[in-house]
Amino acid sequence: MIPSAGTAWACAALVLSATAVTHAAERGSGSSFPIFATEVDDLKSVYATVRSRDLVHARVRTPGTVTSLKIDEGDAVRQGQVLALVVDPKIALKIEAIEARIVAASSRVETSRVELERATTLLQQRVSPQSRVDQARTAHDVAVNDLKAAQAERAVAETEIEEGEVLAPTSGRVLKVPVTEGSVVLPGESVATMAAGGYLLRLELPERYARFMKAGDAVLLGARGLGLSEAALKTGRITQVYPQLENGRVIADAEVAGLGDYFVGERVLAWISAGKRRAYVVPRAYVFRRFGLDFVHLEGESGRFTDAVVQTGRSVRGEDGREDVEILAGVTAGDRLVQP
Q1: The CA-based dihedral angle spanning residues 134, 139, 144, 145, taken in that order and rounded to the nearest 10 degrees
Q2: Signal peptide position in this chain (predicted)?
Q3: Fold designation for 44-52+198-275
Q4: What class, spelled out in words, does domain 5-39+278-338 have in CATH?
Q5: Among 8, 31, 39, 262, which residue's Cβ finds the most Cβ atoms within 10 Å?
Q6: Taking a C-beta distance cutoff of 8 angstroms, is the pair 310, 296 a contact?
């Protein structure tokens, strides 16, 4: 029976691996590193969701029709920026009626003033009694007060027009615009929903991890796009762990820098610590790759070393910033590694 090509390649790989493992050579000038167990974070991978810290609604202050909509989903807005204009046609008619009342009141004020001056002159000439002067002064005061009341009503109506401007209550990004131009809105109705106060990560984990989580714990954030790469791109901290479980899951929020360009609701791969465990951690420089396998130089007797196949795990960042890697199998405590 003729062996297949795949079987031949597998046999060749086994031969090369065996040759590499049994290879021995004189130790070079590289430094050695002792193998010992150390405590590392037992990281668990979870999918986190990008959320806004606050959801703020820009609401209508006066009823009317949306005549101008100046925003769209995804726009960045500033506090106090005009987002939409709401107009009530009845306000214009109301102002016209008030203007007519102001004109009439102004005429009455002028007439009462002339009448008061006439009555005062006749009183000085001892032709008219004091009662007529008092009556003319009262009529003048009433006309003046009517004019002031009409002017105040006009100011209120003009304020209603100004309140037709829907302003952004805070700076942020527009997430949702539930109205269009021509929509009829009522006071208190939302014109736009905005994400404000920055972004954070919402973590939801099984309740068995609840006792391990606390504010201040580190969170590692992976690449975007729900990739399975174990390379951590960003680091953050848990800011709040909610005391109530929901559907058997503990909920926590974490702050991670650089989430401003993420979509609200976007899911990303993250890792959190679920306690401590003991593991072998060595500098990345002591591990090299050959024939698709990971090897290390094990120091032997008489200054010689042998190549040993190892199974590597997750990368670990040392306290001094050095890149380390976890060794899952292939070495034991007490072994010494020689740097290639």
Answers
A1: 100
A2: 1-24
A3: Elongation Factor Tu (Ef-tu); domain 3 (2.40.30)
A4: mainly beta
A5: 262
A6: yes
Q: What angle do CA 221, 224, 229 make, to 5 degrees?
A: 70
For the chain, the average pLDDT equals 83
Rounded distance between C-alpha atoms, residue 139 and residue 110, angstroms: 11
Domain with CATH 2.40.30.170 in the chain: 44-52+198-275
Please give the pLDDT value at position 82: 93
pLDDT of 4 > 60? The answer is: no
What per-residue confidence (pLDDT) applies to 16? 42
Burial of 135 (0-12, 13-18, 19+ CB in 10 A): middle
- Strand 249-256 versus strand 234-241 pairing type: antiparallel
Percent of the chain clearing pLDDT 90 (strictly above)? 26
pLDDT (0 to 100) of residue 167: 92
- The residues of the chain that CATH labels 1.10.287 are 89-162
Q: Which amino acid is at 23?
A: H
CA distances from 277 to 1, 213, 274 (A): 50, 16, 9
Residues of the chain with CATH 2.40.420.20: 5-39+278-338
